[in-house]
Description:
Elements: E1 2-6, E2 9-13, H1 21-24, E3 28-31, E4 37-41, E5 47-52, H2 56-59, H3 66-91
Antiparallel strand pairs: 1-2, 3-4, 4-5
Amino acid sequence: MCILNLNNTTTKLTNQNKMTIEKWLSNVEYDKFGGTYIWNKEKYGSVEMVAEIRGWGSLQHEFKNQKEAEEFQDQVGEFIAQAIKEKIERDFKIE
């Protein structure tokens, strides 16, 4: 918060655009269609990349075939996105 004194009038200014954890992660989704990214979808349709699910180098050797490895990687991405959503809902009040 900043307090300005203009013409002997005190005015409080707050940063309405201040980024917070709950704003940044309020609407995360995992993109399992051709990507391994977790995105935050903004109100007006824009998206911001939050994270990338990695581990393909080792995952591809842990399963019988590539399809199973891809499905597992998607499950991990979905799990992480859901965990973020649950924590945001539990710890922050979204307005």
